[in-house]
Specification:
alpha+beta; Butyryl-Coa Dehydrogenase, subunit A, domain 1; Butyryl-CoA Dehydrogenase, subunit A, domain 2; Butyryl-CoA Dehydrogenase, subunit A, domain 3; 3 domains; four-stranded mixed β-sheet; four-stranded antiparallel β-sheet; 12 helices
Length: 383
């Protein structure tokens, strides 16, 4: 057992930390969120570092990065900007990876190199008004009509749909089959007739809009089917362990950002004649934050290692998601307390972490659903 981070992993963290501190300072991130304007230049520059090609191989312009590298990248992106994470993660680590694993050769050749260079983004269309955790209630329909599919329905929480080039849409292609056999995935190109996208107002990461998508007689060619007809569930479940690990890494990154900010403030802020880090109440909160970040990182990396080895990691991925997201929330809350009144000020940045953390207890499967999964796995194989 070796807990030493490799030189390559350390260099990746250093490179990304320096890049985001230069290119995504607190005031710039706050400005784009305030104006609800997507920072396409930051996304393009991040792609130039290789971030957008981490989920697939070099033959398509990617790097086929190992899972620890992806977790490090996710931490640093989450620490810098939720809006960037909302645009990057669905594109690079879910949709593009889904195309790489399940798509046709033509889809891979056409789309993946453009994902890698940052010129194509993909929004994930899974949730619906009446279907979130419960996939059996997905009702968006796609009916075969000659060489096309005709799609009707509605998606919600489709983040980035208004500026993405494709929607990676989960649709019901067999209304009489079970959820495990009746779902398929279709790529819906930007600007397709019958697609209406409505941005929603939200709490955090406003620079990347979360959208409602209405699909009325939307026609896409049969070549846009990703994977086998009726096997969409296998795509979802084939990617979900990784997604939940990355959510754990997002929580870790937010916790690390809150800790870094709180620690800097506590060293500089003087009250009652000494820096507040020397007051035990503050020191204990910082210690708790450090323990949360470290345990979150370790449990996430363990799950990532198992995923890399091809081992069953559903329980570990669920644990990483729950612990990482809740650790991030706790760290942001303690950071708010340490900064006191200044925590409410946008220019300090702590309030952004506080707003951003809550999503990760919900997205990727609520933490209550995750606890059910952990308990089920315990019953099946133990710890």
């Amino acid at each position: 057992m070796d807990f030493t981070i490799s030189a390559e992993h350390q260099q990746l963290r250093t490179t990304l930390r320096e890049f985001f501190e230069a290119e995504a300072p607190i005031d710039e991130v706050a400005r784009f969120d305030r104006d609800e304007e997507f920072n396409s230049e930051l996304y393009r520059k991040a792609a130039g570092l290789g971030l957008c090609g981490m989920g697939f191989g070099e033959e398509y312009g990617g790097s086929d990065a190992d899972q620890i590298s992806i977790c490090i990248a996710v931490e640093e992106v989450a620490r810098a900007s939720a809006a960037l994470a909302y645009a990057w993660l669905p594109t690079a680590t879910f949709c593009a990876k889904g195309i790489a694993r399940f798509g046709t050769d033509e889809q891979k050749k056409e789309i993946l190199p453009k994902v890698a260079d940052g010129t194509v983004r993909i929004a994930m269309g899974l949730s619906e008004p009446e279907a979130g955790s419960d996939l059996t209630h997905l009702s968006t329909r796609a009916v075969r009509d000659g060489d096309d599919f005709v799609i009707n329905g509605q998606k919600v929480f489709t983040t980035g749909a208004d500026t993405a080039d494709y929607i990676f849409a989960f649709v019901r292609t067999d209304p009489d089959a079970s959820a495990s056999k009746g779902l398929s995935v279709l790529l819906i190109p930007k600007g397709t007739e019958g697609v209406t996208v409505q941005p929603l107002r939200k709490l955090a990461g406003q620079a990347t809009h979360t959208c409602e998508v209405f699909l009325h007689d939307v026609r896409v060619p049969k070549e846009n089917l990703v994977g086998e007809l009726g096997r969409g569930s296998s795509i979802i479940f084939g990617l979900m362990d990784a997604e939940r690990i990355y959510v754990g890494a997002e929580g870790t990154g937010l916790g690390q950002g809150a800790l870094d900010m709180a620690l800097k403030y506590a060293r500089e802020r003087v009250q009652f004649g000494k820096p507040i880090i020397e007051h035990q109440a503050v020191a204990h909160m910082l210690a708790d934050m450090a323990m949360d970040v470290q345990t979150s990182r370790l449990i996430t990396w363990q799950a990532a290692w198992k995923l890399e080895q091809g081992l069953d990691c559903t329980m570990e991925a669920s644990m990483a998601k729950v612990h990482g997201s809740e650790a991030g929330t706790r760290c942001a809350g303690r950071g708010m307390q340490i900064l006191g009144g200044y925590s409410y000020m946008v220019e300090y940045g702590m309030e952004r972490y506080w707003r951003e953390t809550k999503l990760y207890e919900i997205a990727g499967g609520t933490n209550q659903i995750m606890r059910n999964m952990i308990a089920k796995q315990l019953g099946r194989r133990g710890l």
